[in-house]
Design brief:
This protein is mainly α. The chain has one domain. Helices cover 57% and strands 4% of the residues. It is built from eight helices and two strands, in the order H-H-E-E-H-H-H-H-H-H. A hairpin with a 7-residue loop joins strand 1 and strand 2. Helix 5 runs parallel beside helix 7. It comes from Ceuthmochares aereus. This is OGFR factor. One of its GO terms (molecular function) is opioid growth factor receptor activity. Belongs to the opioid growth factor receptor family.
Length: 167
């Protein structure tokens, strides 16, 4: 059957690719080789998007040297946003929640703070943010987004009264 680079427990755009089972996910997590390949695939896709994984332990990211050219591609072709959402979901499935958090924060920073990826902003807010499994970490990222969103009064991804009190 067709192989997926970032498999999920749900159907994607390719209907012939079978969703992962919980048993398969557990088997993948137990295999050092599979998990190393997964991180290699993640690094490969990050490079394609103009991003570098600088710390494999923490998941910390930075712009790659070719970021300007790659960001043009991200801004031009919205299908990349679906792939990024898939990668984020898969990171969560495979136990790499810390990678998820850094990738979402990277896109929030590039879209809201540095304003370099305007055509990724809606996906970052509508989809990327909500792939984060940990409610506490997701809340922290929603607060970060709210702090940098302009105009703040148009922010719809969390209740303003709670965001004002967030610590």
């Amino acid at each position: 059957f067709p192989f997926r680079l970032f498999p999920l427990r749900e159907h994607g755009m390719n209907r012939r690719a079978k969703p992962l089972t919980c048993q398969e996910i557990q088997a993948f997590k137990k295999s050092k080789e599979v998990m190393q390949r997964f991180v290699r695939a993640y690094r490969l896709m990050l490079r394609f998007y103009g991003i570098v994984l600088i710390n494999e332990e923490t998941g910390e990211l930075k712009r790659a040297e070719n970021w300007a050219e790659r960001f043009q591609n991200l801004n031009r072709f919205s299908h990349n946003n679906l792939r990024i959402t898939r990668i984020l979901k898969c990171l969560g499935e495979m136990g790499y929640e810390h990678y998820q958090v850094h990738l979402v924060k990277f896109f929030l920073t590039e879209t809201l703070v540095k304003e370099m990826l305007p055509n990724v902003k809606r996906s970052a807010l509508d989809y990327f943010l909500f792939t984060i499994r940990s409610k506490r970490k997701r809340r922290k990222l929603v607060h970060y987004a709210w702090q940098h969103f302009k105009p703040r009064s148009n922010f719809v991804w969390g209740p303003h009264n709670k965001l004002l009190k967030y610590k």
